[in-house]
Structures are given as structure tokens and as C-alpha cells.
Amino acid sequence: MREFAKEVSQTGAEAIIAKPGRWSPATPEQQKRWDDLIARYPFLDWTHGAATIVVRGGLVQVTWGSALTGHWGFQVSPSGKVKDVEEDRRRVLRVSDDIQFVYD
Q: Rounded to 10 degrees, what is the CA torsion of 90, 92, 69, 47?
């Protein structure tokens, strides 16, 4: 997870990377990038490639799920410590200073 987070955080900007699909068609370049990530990081395909990756504020978050089932995933801080989550509705299981699992 740390290697993955380090790689995707090097985009240098805030980003949302989601599986291209019916509701969000992709360019050939976006599809190639997604396919390459799935090939190297198989956990992104746990729910048939429906993961969403958010890179923001020095934190990489990967989530799966939906509005009906809730969202679950993990957060990794490639450069240090994950931030404490202040939202009451979110459950957190911190496993190290730089990784935590989240559910909301």
C-alpha cells in the first residue's frame, strides 16, 4: 500500500482516479493508466475494478462501495502521518502512523 500511495501521490496535484465506465467514459490514455494500475496493484480490482483513488493534501485514499452499502477503504500518507478523522460518521482503524482503514 505504501508503494502504491507513493506512486500515485507523485502526480503533484490533487486528483481523483476512478475506473472508467459507462457513466464516465475514458480516453484511451486514461483507460491504459487504469489498466496498468490494476495489473500492478490487484487490490484495486477487489470489486471488479470499482475502486476510487483520491489524492489530496498529502494523503492517498482508496475506497470501494456505494451509497447503499457504504464506503470502505484505506488512507496512506506517503510523507508521514495520516490525519485524525474528525467526522463522527466515519469509523477508523489506524494500523500505523501512516496507514489507516476507514468506513463510512
A: 140
Domain range list for the chain? 2-103
pLDDT tens digits, 50-65: 788 888 888 899 998 8
**Cα–Cα distance for residue pair 34/44, rounded to 1 Å:** 10
**Has residue 88 got a pLDDT over 60?**
no
Question: Average of pLDDT values for 7-19?
Answer: 78
Residue 76 has pLDDT above 90, yes or no: yes
62-83 b/e with 16+ CB inside 10 Å = b?
bbbbeeeeeeebbbbbbeeebe
Cβ neighbours of 100 (radius 10 Å): 22
How many C-alpha atoms does 5 have within 13 Å on its Cβ side? 21
**Phi first, then psi: what are they for 27, rounded to 5°?**
-75, 160
Would the pTM of this model clear 0.70, i.e. be above it?
A: yes
